[in-house]
Amino acid sequence: MCARILQRHGIIATVYDLDASATARNQGGTLDMHPDSGQDALREAGLLDEFLALARPEGQQMRLVSRDGRLLVDAVPPEADTDGNPEIDRSQLRDLLLNALTPGTVRWNHKLTHAEPLTDGVHRLHFADGAGTEADLVVGADGAWSKVRRLLSGAIPIYTGVTFVESGLDHADTRHRTLAELTGDGTMMALDDNRGFIAQRNSRQHIRVYIGMRTDEHWYQRPGVDLSDDRAVREALLKEFTGWNLDLLGFITDTDRGYINRPLYALPVPHTWQHKPGITLLGDAAHLMSPFSGMGANLAMLDGADLARALITHTTTDEAVRAYEALMLPRSAEAAEGAAEGIDSAFAPDSASQVLAHMSR
Fold first, then answer.
1. What is the C-alpha separation between 324 and 176, in angstroms, rounded?
2. Which of 303, 290, 193, 188 is nearest to 247 (CA)?
């Protein structure tokens, strides 16, 4: 996002990516883009119309289901909702941004080992293949375990106490009709007693499932489960959800994708740093938080747009970065605080009543 907007104003930017190519790995589930953040960034990048052509307004539907399978809340977006938060697959959004860049902008297969401060804000980037380059401004957009962040902050992500085990349903409307009907067009949540299911409708009839538990970070070690053994993982998860509705348990048993263990981490709140010339952070590198704010990707998009706008409008790079950080740090701290409260409410002994009250409001 940041590179796209800079290029629209004639400013050269290079993106170094550790992936071997644009298709090297699965990009994850679906995202809702908010009008005042993600969509604002897309508008600045000249990509809003293309986004809206791909987005799914019906994906805003939100359902809450009890552990015995009863539908408690079904929040359906109004038809022709042009002011909402339409959903888009992460892979589609990423392709939209990549295809908008000048060819050659992204240098694939560049895994950063460390960034070295030189003089006057210039840094040298060292890559795993032995290559290196110098930059007037280094933007650490390198995620949860950012190497760039180490030059600005000693903070490291902390386990939130909640783990997701991801699974998935392919051709859901034909092969998994009961679970597809339960999920609806958007997101279905069944949360109770520190556990829950979150089923998320993607495009092309795929449903991505997150089986959540408040548990030890290495929960699978207690029962001696090998995470590569799908049968053992399935049996362990079924024990964790003893007494839950049989249809909901289908989100465990009927997977077409196996299981991926995903412990959730977050940076301390607030996460801040002392400004240093020639270097800054955006996205998860700056403000990793739980997904229960619904703001992580939206803030990352807005970060990229705001940093680009500052670089375009300020006289010096250092003035631009200071202005960007003054804008970004307070809003990310507020969102991260909300995310921490959200995950504590969603995975609590009385989570069903807490989430029901929140959705009712």
1. 47
2. 188
In this prediction, residue 96 carries a pLDDT of 98
**How does residue 356 score in pLDDT terms, banded at 50, 70 and 90?**
confident
All structural domains of the chain: 1-61+84-157+268-361 (3.50.50.60), 158-266 (3.30.9.30)
pLDDT at residue 59 in the model: 95
Residue 360 confidence (pLDDT) above 80: no
Question: How would residue 333 be classed by pLDDT, with cut points 50, 70 and 90?
Answer: very high
Instruction: Note whether 113 and 128 are within 8 A (CB).
Output: yes
Whether the CB-CB separation of 203 and 255 falls below 8 Å is answered with no
pLDDT confidence of residue 353:
87
Instruction: With 0.90 as the threshold, say if the pTM is over it.
Output: yes
313 and 320 in contact (C-beta within 8 Å)?
Answer: yes
Per-residue pLDDT reduced to its tens digit, 190-244: 999 999 999 999 999 999 999 999 999 999 999 999 999 999 999 999 999 999 9
Rounded Cα distance, 154 and 210, in Å: 31
